[in-house]
UniProtKB/TrEMBL annotation:
Protein name: HD domain-containing protein
Family annotation (InterPro entries): HD/PDEase_dom, HD_GYP_dom, HDIG_dom
Pfam family, one: HD_5
Signal peptide: none
Domain (HD-GYP) ranges: 111-307
SMART domains for this protein: HDc
PROSITE patterns in the record: HD_GYP (PS51832)
């Protein structure tokens, strides 16, 4: 299978993976042959990419940090709990089941990630790149857990970190949706209202008996930055807890690679490049370096163009050098089909480099 920009879909192409709505329900199922109406519907959803079956890449498997079953279960649990809070008119006593619900969920997530520890990389889900609070919360949790395991945290530390990551944006359940989804510029007062989600999240979590206080501080501090330019308290350097620093990095990344009403989604390599401009000023340099070393900036299935002119599809990610993937070469430097296609391992072919994304390469499908 391969990732194709929605703008380049054509009738007759066959979906290679399910497409879900924000409630976790299947909108279009794997194996469906796309019609013009379906394509218009996908374009109306503003999705960036979808996975399509392709005879030249049919054996390529998209790796997962956790199973689709666990992912959907987690999103529905987050959605149910967050919506319950949204319906409450007060904070105290409205979320007493929070710790038990998410404590069990964290155990399942940790077990699944740990079982794939040897091949553990941050895998950006390119075919669901529209922003959704529930999916964003899960993504930040999954990515942060990978970083925490790589950093060497204990299981107990990982659970505190994971809960903080999963619930870092819980305060947004009390933010007016019209502010979160406004396409235009916000006034200072409106932006301050959005910033309050950090303090609200802390208030929700700090007195919950099954939520560690440190997890609550993750909700409070995840927008703080090393140089003091963050919020809500303008903390600097070591005054920011390390867990909040990790979550701040991952939260920024997932926001960048997600489409919002006011901005398009970035590709993973673009987001990492932007984040590195804040190394040592906004983000802790060693933490950001570990993040860079674990993120697959060129996802499996993506069509890429080499600096020598060949194009191909990313077929495999190396867990220890995810920025140097294996590419299945499909066309030569003159744009002519390669018969048969061959695998080029960029971790071994060090003179070859990815120069860009080959979004227009759909002729072989």
């Amino acid at each position: 299978m391969r990732l194709i920009p929605v703008k380049l879909l054509s009738p007759g192409m066959i979906l290679a993976r399910n497409i879900y709505n924000s409630d976790g329900l299947v909108l279009l199922a794997e194996g469906v042959k796309l019609s013009e109406g379906m394509i218009r519907r996908l374009q109306g959803m503003d999705l960036g990419y979808v996975y399509i079956k392709d005879k030249l890449t049919e054996d390529i498997v998209i790796p997962e940090l956790v199973s689709e079953e666990t992912r959907l279960k987690a999103i529905r649990s987050i959605q149910s709990s967050f919506r319950n809070l949204e319906s409450q008119s007060h904070l105290k006593g409205s979320f007493l089941h929070l710790g038990k619900t998410f404590g069990g969920l964290m155990d399942s997530i940790m077990d699944e990630i740990a079982s794939h520890q040897e091949s553990m990389v941050l895998l950006t889900d390119m075919h669901t790149n529209d922003y959704n609070l529930y999916r964003h919360s899960l993504n930040v949790c999954l990515y942060t857990m990978v970083l925490g395991i790589s950093y060497g945290y204990s299981k107990d530390e990982l659970k505190v970190l994971g809960l903080g990551a999963l619930l870092h944006d819980i305060g947004k359940t009390r933010t007016p949706p019209e502010l979160l989804n406004r396409p235009g510029a916000l006034s200072k007062e409106e932006f301050r209202e959005i910033q309050r989600h950090t303090e609200i999240g802390f208030k929700i979590l700090k007195d919950e008996p099954n939520i560690p206080l440190l997890s609550a501080h993750c909700a409070l501090q995840h927008h703080e930055r090393l140089d003091g330019s963050g919020y809500p308290r303008g903390l600097k350097g070591d005054d920011i807890h390390d867990y909040a620093k990790w979550i701040g990095i991952v939260d920024s990344y997932d926001a960048m690679v997600s489409r919002r009403v006011y901005k398009p989604a970035m590709l993973p390599h673009e987001a990492v490049e932007v984040m590195y401009t804040g190394s040592g000023t906004l983000y802790e340099q060693p933490f950001l370096a570990l993040f860079r070393d674990r993120v697959a900036i060129y996802p499996v299935g993506l069509t890429v163009r080499l600096h020598t002119g060949e194009t191909g599809v990313v077929s495999r990610i190396h867990p220890h050098v995810p920025h140097r993937p294996v590419v299945r070469i499909l066309t030569d430097s003159e744009g002519q089909p390669v018969t048969p296609p061959y695998e080029l391992d960029l971790s071994e072919s060090l003179t070859k480099m990815i120069a860009g994304i080959g979004d227009n390469q759909t002729q072989s499908i």
